[in-house]
Amino acid sequence: MRNSFSKDFGLLEGQTYIIGREGDIYVENHIYMDFPSVSRRHAAMKIKNGRIYLCDLDSTNGTYLIENDSLVPFKNGYVSPSQPIVIGCVKCTISSLLTLIGVHSVSKNTKSSSENTLLMPPNQ
What we know:
Layout: H1 4-9, E1 16-20, E2 30-34, E3 43-48, E4 51-56, E5 63-67, E6 70-73, E7 76-79, E8 84-87, E9 90-93, H2 94-98, E10 105-107, E11 117-118
Parallel strand pairs: 1-2, 2-10
Antiparallel strand pairs: 1-3, 3-4, 4-7, 5-6, 5-8, 8-9, 9-11
């Protein structure tokens, strides 16, 4: 069943979307990010009960939430569409990633916006 959030982004309840460098930018259910710091299969997003569930897929450079101007390591849990995150070294929001599903990609050659910014790698 679809809810208003799902309708806004054209998402199906229960569908999983993979974030990473692997695959083709036009593959359905894939968010392609062309950055060396992003793993081939970096993270996954799933719509569960009208909410967004984000899960790091044991990526090399990690997934982080940005809270109070600090990077907080993130493994899995529910996130809001406006949540700022870092995938590898790429700062974005959940909603900016959702707009890319199967349509566009974020790449090194894409002009940066306030929602998609290349960051320095987090201290490990």
